[in-house]
Specification:
Elements: H1 2-36, E1 39-40, H2 41-48, H3 52-64, E2 68-70, E3 76-79, H4 81-87, H5 96-111, E4 114-121, E5 124-131, E6 146-148, H6 153-160, H7 164-174, H8 187-200, E7 203-206, E8 213-221, E9 227-236, H9 242-247, H10 249-262
Antiparallel strand pairs: 1-3, 2-3, 4-5, 4-9, 5-6, 7-8, 8-9
Helix pairs in contact: 1-3, 2-3, 5-10, 6-8
């Protein structure tokens, strides 16, 4: 009786594990089709790492739920309108601070510095949420504060992803006021920095907004691919050096990408 109970329990556990694996594989299939546009059974099987018969069963199940459909070219599959039915309910409820919060807390624990998420409001940048690391207990609370576009890392990355006309109008309205001896007040120099930020995927400031404060930021995208916010990391110059800014750039970009995925963006 005891052995029978153990076998039954193991069988239930095996069924649960298999079910989770099937769900994971089905989600992988959807992601593959989202990335490729369309794919055949063999391509899906190779990408997921399963036998063709398994890939076919997964595709058939998803087709039954109207999440995928066959193209005119027999054997090829693509995402179907069922995806739109599910996705249509998501963007309306996505909240940037809510989606960014977990990622920001992870990043600040990793780097030990203050992490902020900011958005464009009029011709300023407004910080929506903030996470503080163990070494930033007394850091200023930036939530709700408006900061200048041209002198902050978040502002620069948002400017870099605007079209030239919008950028020109915003900077004309805001001006390029000098806030510290290192603030960029030349439109030409700022444009050069924005071009580099667009190329490299991040922007930074070195004591441009506040003396003794450095920062770096990367863009956050929504489900349409539009840049809607920026995640930044800032800290005092004595430990947050200009050299270290560039060393952690990959971490900041990865955090921005993670938030973008939570916002529904597929690269």
């Amino acid at each position: 009786m005891k052995n029978g109970t153990v076998r039954a329990a193991n069988g239930a556990a095996g069924t649960t594990t298999g079910g989770v694996q099937s769900v994971d594989r089905a989600v992988s299939v959807l992601e593959i089709l989202a990335r490729r546009g369309e794919a055949g059974v063999s391509e899906v099987a190779a990408d997921v790492g399963v036998h063709k018969s398994t890939a076919f069963r997964l595709l058939s199940a998803l087709e039954g739920r109207e999440l995928v459909e066959q193209t005119h070219e027999r054997g090829k599959y693509r995402l179907s309108f069922g995806i739109l039915r599910l996705a249509g309910a998501v963007p309306r409820r996505l909240d940037i601070p809510e989606q960014a919060g977990p990622v920001c807390r992870t990043l600040t624990a990793q780097l030990g510095e203050t992490v902020n998420v900011a958005v464009l409001r009029s011709h300023f940048v407004v910080n929506l949420c903030q996470a503080r690391g163990p070494s930033t207990v007394s850091t200023h609370n930036w939530i709700g504060e408006s900061t200048p576009l041209h002198a902050t890392s978040s502002g620069k990355i948002l400017l870099a992803h605007m079209n030239a006309e919008q950028r020109r109008d915003l900077l004309t309205a805001a001006g390029l006021n000098r806030l510290t001896p290192r603030t960029i007040t030349s439109a030409e120099t700022l444009e050069e920095q924005l071009s580099i930020a667009l190329r490299d995927g991040y922007a930074y400031t070195v004591e441009e907004f506040e003396e003794g404060l450095n920062a770096i930021a990367a863009p956050i995208r929504d489900h349409t691919g539009e840049v809607v916010a920026a995640v930044s990391v800032s800290g005092p110059v004595y430990r947050f050096t200009e050299r270290w800014l560039h060393e952690i750039a990959r971490d900041v970009i990865a955090a921005a990408d993670a938030i973008s995925r939570r916002m529904g963006y597929l690269d």
